[in-house]
Amino acid sequence: MSINSNRLFQLFKYAVYVLLAFNVFVFWSEETLANAIQYPHGVSLSEVISAYSATIDTAAWVVLLLMFELETHVLEDHHYSTAVTWSLHGVRFLCYVFIVYAFYGYIINLTFIFQAVPLTGVSDVCVLVSDGWSYAIDLDEYTQLTAANCGTFSNASAYLRFEGITAVVDATGLVDIRNLAWVDVINAAVWLLVVLVLEADVWLQERNRFEGFALRTSQAIKSVLYTVLLFAAVYWGFNGDFVDFWDAFLWLVAFVFIELNVFEWRQEVNESAAHSQITATS
Fold first, then answer.
1. pLDDT score, position 94
2. 83-120: string of b/e by CB count within 10 Å (b at 16+)?
3. How far is CA 111 from CA 116, 140, 158, 163, in A?
4. For the chain, which end, N or C, has fewer CB atoms within 10 Å of the first or last residue's CB respectively?
5. Residue 211: is its pLDDT beyond 50?
6. For residues 145 and 133, is the Cβ–Cβ distance under 8 A?
7. pLDDT (average), residues 179-198
8. How many angstroms separate the Cα of 156 from the Cα of each of 58, 116, 120, 161, 239?
9. What is d(CA 22, CA 34) in angstroms, rounded to the nearest whole number?
10. What is the mean pLDDT of the chain?
11. Can you give the residue ranges of every domain in the chain?
12. How many CB atoms lie within 10 A of CB 82?
């Protein structure tokens, strides 16, 4: 029994999309656990974006990805009625609102990390066990200090606490957490630039103007942007946790699919134009 290579490719592509959608739940679970420490009195409406920035960001990106998939691969030219066009643009606009909102949340989180202050009078975190303190082992990841684990986190003689919460970290750990927070901000900003360029690609392709200088410029800019995103994924792989690395890797794969969609779309338009020209001259 032969396997249709195109069908296999499409199954693989949509499997990646499903995995990205599942990551919404993964990030929600992680942030919910972290929020028990960061927001001991509960998350207010104004704090939702800082408390669930990764969840909101990922959910909005998944919907945006599906919109790009529809526009660059699934829908044919005859499907584009006024209602369909405005619906696609409206949903994409809402996605961008939430993505920019989540980017703001990453900035808030970065600011929070930089507000850590020295914890005076404490040279051994084990003295904090009875007071319900936690240790920050990663960005948005805390473990409650107990008599059994308090000696395993750090050998430092000085610690810092995060403002407003009962969580501590040593100087080395704080540097790592700050770096991860910076990578979050940079990664989110670069992805915004990627979709800005991709929106321009789609706009030009819809008008049969995605050629020559516009095509070369787009490719050059996206090469730089995707390289930065790849470095971010590698950094998470070595210094963050597996979920961050895996999510970053999946998003790069997903947007390779979108780039291929645009490439195939462009080929189809060019072939159609060439066929029409041959028909007209024959």
1. 93
2. eeeeebeeebeebbebbeebbebbbebbebbeebeebe
3. 10, 13, 22, 11
4. N
5. yes
6. yes
7. 93
8. 36, 16, 13, 14, 20
9. 19
10. 87
11. 5-115+174-281, 117-171
12. 7
